Amino acid sequence: MVLTGRDKGKQGTVLRVIEDSRVLVESVNMIKRHTKPNPNKGVTGGIIDREAPIHISNVALYNPATGKGERVGMRTMQDKSKVRYFKKSGEVADVK
């Protein structure tokens, strides 16, 4: 779930994490890319809509219990396994 910006409140799956603390989220932060046709690569060209990366601090995990996006932290359980938990509600986010 996106926390800030023009796409605030939108939800989508993370497609890719980029090295410099940015993520690509499906159908969020869409830009128009003008491409030339390239028959060698099979590109038809034209105006293409695609996702642009947004900073990871502007994205939060969706909590289905509250219906909102919440930040997560790491917690070590009694059996020495690490799980993610929602910082606001304290619930475990990784249920396996």
From TrEMBL:
Part of the 50S ribosomal subunit. The keyword Zinc does not apply. This is Large ribosomal subunit protein uL24. GO terms for biological process: translation. GO terms for molecular function: rRNA binding; structural constituent of ribosome. One of the proteins that surrounds the polypeptide exit tunnel on the outside of the subunit. One of two assembly initiator proteins, it binds directly to the 5'-end of the 23S rRNA, where it nucleates assembly of the 50S subunit. It comes from uncultured proteobacterium Rifle_16ft_4_minimus_30456. The keyword Ribonucleoprotein applies. Residues 28-92 form the Large ribosomal subunit protein uL24 C-terminal domain. GO terms for cellular component: ribonucleoprotein complex; ribosome. Belongs to the universal ribosomal protein uL24 family. Keywords: Ribonucleoprotein, Ribosomal protein, RNA-binding, rRNA-binding. Residues 1-26 form the KOW domain.
